Automatic annotation (TrEMBL):
It is a single-pass type II membrane protein. Pfam families: Sulfotransfer_2. This is Carbohydrate sulfotransferase. GO terms for molecular function: sulfotransferase activity. GO terms for cellular component: Golgi membrane. Its main location: Golgi. Belongs to the sulfotransferase 2 family. Keywords: Carbohydrate metabolism, Glycoprotein, Golgi apparatus, Membrane, Signal-anchor, Transferase, Transmembrane, Transmembrane helix.
Length: 290
């Protein structure tokens, strides 16, 4: 594989070099954890999907086209079993046994793959991703498992005079209550955040793992097809084009944030700050941080 040892001087090559530099700079300047050389444990590697045939590692981030990327990885690793990613049902893409993750290897095998395989991840504006996760997990009827698991806990903690029904089913969590839960020190003590709202820096460890490519949700198709070109499968496989009318937008995100206090906004920004800095997302204009 010619990448990334030989410099790629195309427009895309320069763009991806700039993104890698941005991550490295943010890690050096802001991340206290990156200064303490922390040894990654197998648990840290469960989001890294491995494709042996194409020597590829993809760190999936929920709410950043991860269903479609998992479908593509199933086509790549399926040895002919699948040819069209969109024929794979979305629930099948999320069955853990359908893809192999890096934590299933020995330490020596992990190190070999981290050193030699092409590694990539996809990121999204942090608050857009957060609102997208909230809308998906707390406002849709079919996500009752999330309502039971998180909604009931959130309502019990943060809603005064909650009805019995709300306490039992957790089905109508307000965005304001969800953000209270996220910034509450008690939540941090309970252990890592759920993957749908955990920070990218905690899911994929970009200060410890040197990613060759940082794709962005905002340029999803271009970046995805660039990855497929690098691994030599662009002739036979295209990333599914994506036109979802319900997609969470910047305007929508601003609307959600207008309902929470300045203090809450500031604490949320602190929580996701590394993701903003690492991936070069500017502080949203709607935030009241002064």
């Amino acid at each position: 594989m010619c990448f990334p040892n030989q410099p790629d001087l195309s427009g895309a090559g320069v763009l991806h070099q700039a993104r890698r530099d941005q991550v490295a700079d943010a890690c050096r300047v802001y991340s206290a954890s990156s200064r303490k050389r922390r040894v990654l444990t197998p648990a840290d590697l469960k989001h890294l999907v491995v494709d042996e045939d194409h020597e590829l590692i993809y760190c999936y981030v929920p709410k950043v086209a991860c269903t479609n990327w998992k479908r593509v990885m199933m086509v790549l690793t399926g040895r002919g079993k699948y040819s069209d990613p969109m024929e794979i049902p979305s629930n099948e893409a999320h069955i853990p046994t359908n893809l192999k993750t890096l934590n299933q290897y020995t330490i020596a095998e992990i190190n070999h793959r981290l050193k030699n395989y092409l590694k990539f991840l996809f990121v999204r504006e942090p608050f857009e991703r957060l609102v997208s996760a909230y809308r998906n997990k707390f406002t849709l009827k079919y996500n009752s498992s999330f309502h039971k698991r998180f909604g009931t806990r959130i309502i019990r903690r943060y809603r005064k005079n909650a009805t019995q029904d709300a306490l039992l089913n957790g089905a109508d969590v307000k965005f304001k209550e969800f953000t209270e839960y996220l910034v509450d020190p008690a939540t941090q003590r309970d252990g890592p955040l759920n993957e749908h709202w955990q920070t990218v820096s905690q899911l994929c460890h970009p200060c410890h793992i040197h990613y060759d490519l940082v794709g962005k949700y905002e340029t999803l198709e271009d970046d995805s097809n660039y990855v497929l070109r690098l691994v030599g499968v662009a002739e036979s496989l295209r990333f599914p084009s994506y036109a979802k009318s319900t997609r969470t937008t910047d305007t929508m995100t601003a609307q959600f944030f207008s309902n929470i206090s300045t203090q809450q906004q500031l604490r949320l920004y602190q929580l996701y700050k590394m993701d903003f800095l690492m991936f070069n997302y500017s502080t949203p204009s709607y935030l009241r941080l002064d």
